[in-house]
Design a protein that fits this description.
Layout (H helix, E strand, L loop, with lengths): L26 E2 L4 E2 L16 E2 L16 H10 L1 E4 L5 H15 L10 E3 L6 E5 L1 H4 L1 H8 L1 H11 L3 E11 L7 E4 L1 H9 L6 E7 L10 E3 L6 E2 L11 H4 L10 H11 L11 E5 L4 E3 L8 E10 L33
Antiparallel strand pairs: 1-2, 3-11, 4-12, 5-6, 6-7, 7-14, 8-13, 9-12, 9-14, 10-13
């Protein structure tokens, strides 16, 4: 199978999707292109704080996988679903051991796909783990995950991005509020909101070690962000994000309407959340580390095109192709 990189593969243009249901914005006949339904990284704010979501949220049914109607309804309403005890026992121990082995790889430090804490050399995130690890590759293809993804997206999907996150005790930094879709749309060229993230927590999550916080219901609107995307923005944003962060007025209004939730519990839980759900995390103030393995599934007919708000697409370890076989040498 041919390996495609950001420099060797020709990206589709917006006009290639003029007859597709993936993009729902109208065609600008005068310019011969599809208008961007989700403009962002703007030089000045729009008249409204946000734009209404164009796509449906849950596109499948109970017949497509293991989730019940009540669970699908919760995901539709809140934009996320937490399932405690998704994995346990020996399987959980294996995944923890694999995470520790990957984080201890000295040959990964300093590589583009290995992100360290801003003030140390401790690995914070390791990307493309389903290519770096056979164990995590099997997990990414596990029908327990794929079935849930199929129910939510309403079709077959591929792994757009994978990573392990590690937030060490006392020094693990937080991350600003953001929508993943805003970044994937602006910098990777993801056309529409047909993606879902699956995060399996590998350590106990409690209120003191910086658990993920989400704004329920925020997935039903898109909050445009200000500021043009700098070149090679990923080098900074993966450590400390400054562009692609929603404005405080929009955040204040969404939190006033919907509140904030932080799913917590023992290691082994599964958090599924929509690509557009606003989320963030605080610093880890406790001695207990927090870690998870994270897979982003994008529907196959929603593969990325040219970036909507960046000069060029991010490296392939951040945004895989449906048929890609990535290796560390690709982005060296």
């Amino acid at each position: 199978m041919t390996v495609h990189t950001s420099s060797s593969r020709k990206l589709k243009q917006a006009t290639d999707y003029a007859g597709s249901e993936t993009l729902t914005s109208p065609v600008d006949s005068a310019l011969g292109r599809i208008r961007d339904a989700y403009p962002t990284r703007l030089t000045k704010p729009l008249d409204s704080l946000w734009l209404e979501r164009q796509e449906g949220v849950v596109r499948g049914s109970t017949e497509d996988g293991p989730l019940t109607q009540a669970q699908l309804d919760e995901f539709e309403r809140k934009g996320f679903l937490f399932e405690p005890s998704f994995i346990s026992g020996e399987e959980l121990d294996e995944l923890r051991s694999e995470l520790d082995a990957l984080l201890s790889r000295d040959d990964f430090r300093g590589r583009d796909f290995s992100i360290t804490e801003p003030e140390s050399q401790e690995i914070r995130s390791l990307f493309a783990v389903h290519f770096l690890s056979r164990r995590f590759a099997r997990l990414a293809r596990d029908e327990r995950l794929i079935g849930r993804v199929r129910q939510i997206l309403g079709g077959e999907a591929y792994v757009h991005q994978s990573r392990i996150n590690y937030k060490p005790g006392f020094v693990g930094k937080g991350f600003s509020w953001h929508s993943d879709f805003e970044t994937w749309h602006a910098e990777d060229g993801m056309p529409a909101m047909h993606a879902v993230s699956a995060s399996i927590v590998l350590t106990d999550n409690h209120e003191f070690n910086g658990p993920l916080m989400l704004i329920p219901g925020s997935h039903k609107v898109f909050v445009p962000c200000l500021g043009e995307t700098p070149d090679d923005h990923h080098r900074q944003s993966l450590k400390r994000q400054e562009f692609g962060v929603p404005g405080r007025e929009a955040l204040r209004e969404l939190v006033a309407r919907h509140g904030i939730e932080a799913p917590k519990g023992a290691a082994g839980g599964l958090l599924l959340f929509d690509c557009n759900t606003l989320h963030g995390s605080n610093a880890n103030m406790s001695p207990d580390p927090r870690s998870n393995v994270f897979f982003v599934y994008n529907r196959c007919d929603n593969a990325c095109v040219e970036p909507f708000a960046a000069r060029c697409r991010r490296p392939s370890f951040l945004a895989h192709w449906p048929d890609e076989l990535w290796t560390p040498q690709i982005d060296a």
